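Good morning,

Both structures are done.
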Amino acid sequence: MAKILDNCSLALIAFGSNENSILGYPRETVQKAMKFLADMSVKPHNSSSLYTNPAFPKGSGPHFVNAAMAIHTNLSPAELLDELHQVEARALRTRSKRWGQRTLDLDLIGVGELVQPDNTTFARWRDLGLSEQQVETPTELILPHPRLQDRAFVLVPLCDVAPDWRHPISGKTVREMRDALPSNDLAEVVRLSD
């Protein structure tokens, strides 16, 4: 049985796909996943536009379709992550290679002002070098997402849905984090037409 929090929390979720799935092409896969998550929100949700950008790290696969949502949930972060994994499973997501091609990637970016499991663990993952990031995977949920501030493909769509959400460690808003990124990184994230 799901644990109910005292109040519902704002949860920020990033979507990505660069491989066809049972749900369709990457664009269709992301759109259908967004519908699944919209149905989970206990209050009105907010969805971003769809964007395309090169795979990360560069050269690791076809371009991604990315998006973001802000939903309201009564689930604990662990329960919400489990729900995200179930949606990924509907797209037959496999985890065979870190940062490989994906039918669907759903990342829990933040939940309200939570830092989880603690500031020290968060800082370790935030400060991990790129070569270590490519081989190490956390064994526990880290909130907010430790790479959030570095990724234009997350921050650009997230700015559509929660530009004023503040990072609970840095205190910077999504808009401030996005605007601090190099302009060439931002230019690679291109809004798709409807």
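Second structure follows.
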Amino acid sequence: MNEVNLPGSSASPDATEAANVEVLFLNVGQGDSTLVVDYSTKEAILIDCPGGREHVVEQALSDRGCKLAVALITHWDLDHFGGIIGVLDQCGTKTLRFNHETLLAHGNQGRVLATLRRLRDQRYNHIEFSDARQGLVGTVGAVRFELLAPSYRQLLFAVSSFDRNLASGVVAIEANGTRVLVGGDADGRVWSRILSEGISVRSDFLKWPHHGAMRHTERHVDDQELLDAVEPSLVIFSAGSHNRYGHPLPSTVRLVANNNTDVICTQVTERCHSGLHEADTPCAGTVSLMLSPGGRVTRSPNGHRLAGLIDGWTQPLCRPATANPNLTGFVEGEDALVN
């Protein structure tokens, strides 16, 4: 994989060749949403969308002149599924993939049930509904996607223990010789199971699970073990400026940066910029990876642009460690409590 930087804030679809694939880590605040666009078919895969951020997905699709082929819900947390119905209403899709087991034993299931009841409406009869479990493999043009989690056993444990994160999907995306891993909210138990089964998670790019605050215990995979297993050149954290959960954890950012791995956050938090007053203040904003044949990757925004921006923050969690704009350093900070 040969990575280059693209000037500006976003890749221009007009300049792309038909063989290209674009992976967009959308700026949706405290939530998660990934859009994968295949330019040869003008079709896209959507992984999650939080409520109130439907317009971000709609605009990205409109700008690229493409339609949804697959929408996928990793699990039933509002910051992952809350905007899916709105996207379907405005954009449609051929296939919607999700697992509904985890809502059955969950005490706060009103919004989930409301979503499922709306999906029974005849306007969605043209959409194929299917599960989103380990082993699912699909293609859209040059894009191959595979679910590495959840396993059926983990769905059982998630239902019986009232733990939706244990049921989170992990999605591997491959196109043009590059692999991207989307971690959902999968915690250390999920990653332990994946690795114990000999499943490779080696990827060029990783959207870090649970917004930079992956849960783990002594018996399960921790941040270092996940980083060692994936060996990404870039880690993306999707989190909101004023989120109350302390995402991303400074210790996680420190660990990633100290491994000479590039770090990008969609929004800046108060621990990076003490003068932050506005909600939804972008740092990188939406991150675009243009995957071209031969393993060439064009990234936007690029390292130089980000370096110039974060120099204006009070105490940014990451700074360029060397002249190489693909590397970042770290300024010490304290961890926050995570819900």
